[in-house]
Amino acid sequence: MAIKRRIDPAEGNRAFRRWIENDAAQADALPRPLIAMAVRYTLEELASRAEGNSVEVRVPPFGVTQCIPGPRHTRGTPPNVIELPAAIWLALASGKIGWEAALATGKVTASGLRADLSAELPLV
């Protein structure tokens, strides 16, 4: 079953490409709405490519999605949660950094047996 998209794919892809084209210092200076669109678009991409409900990916304050096939979570705190800042999420989604490097930053929390996105990233 396909996910319901809230972000126009063309607009989201443009925002994501604009983020990719900037180096880390410039990317932090991009307008907040552009970063928000890029994050939400990439979360939707992840959810569409790895449909499921066993892992929750949180990128506060911009968005959250559930993905990865497996046991469905319906109430309370999910058993498999990944939470990370937007800059690291977009770097992972773009392939600028890998999963292990992201974890090594100390800014990514990943709890649960399925909380590993290395097989799903990068998205480009």
In a nutshell, what does this entry contain?
The protein is α+β, with helices and mostly antiparallel strands. The chain is 41% helix and 13% strand.
Helix/strand-derived category reads alpha+beta
Number of strands: 4
Strand order of the largest sheet: 2-1-3-4
Give the low-confidence spans.
none
The CATH architecture term is: 2-Layer Sandwich
Mean pLDDT: 92
| CATH level-3 fold name | Nonspecific Lipid-transfer Protein, Chain A
How would a textbook summarize the main sheet?
4 strands, mixed
Q: Into which percent range does the helicity of residues fall? A: 40-55%
Oligomer: single chain
Shape assignment: globular
- Strand and helix order: HHHEEEHHE
Q: What's the CATH C level? A: Alpha Beta
Strand content: 5-15%
Q: If helices are DSSP runs of H or I spanning 4 or more residues, what is the number of helices?
A: 5
What's the Cα radius of gyration? 14 Å
Number of separate structural domains: 1
InterPro entries: SCP2_sterol-bd_dom_sf, SCP_3
Pfam family, one: SCP_3
Organism: Paeniglutamicibacter psychrophenolicus
Protein name: Bacterial SCP orthologue domain-containing protein
